[in-house]
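Title: Request for sanity check on Cytochrome P450 prediction

Description:
We are preparing a figure and want to confirm that the structure record we downloaded matches what your pipeline produces today. Could someone re-run it with the sequence below and paste the raw structure tokens into this thread? We only need the token string, no images.
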Amino acid sequence: MTDTTAQFPFPPTSPEKAHEQMRRIREDRPMTQVQYAFGGKVWAIHRHAAVKQMLEDRRFVRKPFATGAMEVPYPVQFPDFLKTTMQFADPPEHTRLRRLVAKAFTMRRVELLREKTRRFAEDLLDAMERKGPPADLVRDYTLQVPILVLSELLGVPAADRDKFTAWSQVMLATNGLSEQELAEHGAALYTYLVELIAARRAEPADDLLSALATAREKDDSLTDEEILPIAMLLLVAGFDNTANFATQGVLALLRNPDQLRVFLADIDGVAPTLADEVLRHGGFALGNDVEGSAGLVPFVATEDVEIDGQLVRAGECVMADISTANHDENAFADPERFDVTRSPNPHLTLSHGLHHCLGASLARMEMQVIIGSVFRRFPGLALAGEESYATDFLTAGMSSLPVTW
């Protein structure tokens, strides 16, 4: 009988070994019950079809984690504001919130941001070029564009963007600051957003906060108490995660010169498929996904459910092992290969079904612009050292990528 238990971390996150480990795991079993050192357990689902099955099954819910009826079964401390967002909601509450937010978070709004995103990228690249090589691509570029876009999206005035950026970065930090400092920064950001939402409700502008404040469905609308967590969630989902995947995309191209040549030959044409391939191929951590929708936040079974031959008992927790599922040979041809023209690309990084990421179009647009702009400006971009990863941020993304040109 196959052993379906393992100690965390599982699988080990070494990129050099990850593909082979993931393949063996998928062949051996559809899921593994991961045992954490502190005692928590969760089923990690490895196969693409099995992950989709779980995400489509309404018998898996999240509300018990939001209400405190159950503790999240692994050592990730979610901020309280996240537990009031759609990520932790189930129908009918989730359906209502998603419908109202979708009215504000439209593809048209995202596309209107594309040109401003290009200008933000170009301004930052101008500064890099003036300073000269080498540069830290994360600090000088990929981390800066998403926060500028997010500020523009939410309607943060230009004069407030420096302090908004500082508060946002603190909200994602996991250590380095005292509890008092974290509380003070969090309270400052909270107060600022409350006041901004009130201002936009009184005098709507052409930004997301105004659209959320005025979204209507018959007699239903979003309250200020519901809008605030949505704005806070965007900080987690749309800032550092987007920067991390954009940086991974640049690194993947530099490490795959044959794919870089394909991209440079037709940047605009290849950028859309490149963005999805980076989302599929990037990251090796268990449950890694850009929005936290499928992998980071677990589900709990409300009754006994069989998934791909494995029984999950009522009350047991499950999570999607996104990276492993995204390399499933039953869903992707030659899955270990980084292919910038891969299509179709049914990756699960932005989740699936009920919890499919509402910000998916924004994440894709930003990645297309960030990666495309830097290679247009510096077609000879090259690595100038080894990348490093953050250990003090919630998303544990790339903290440094030295480059030259």
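Thanks, this matches our download. The mean pLDDT is 84.
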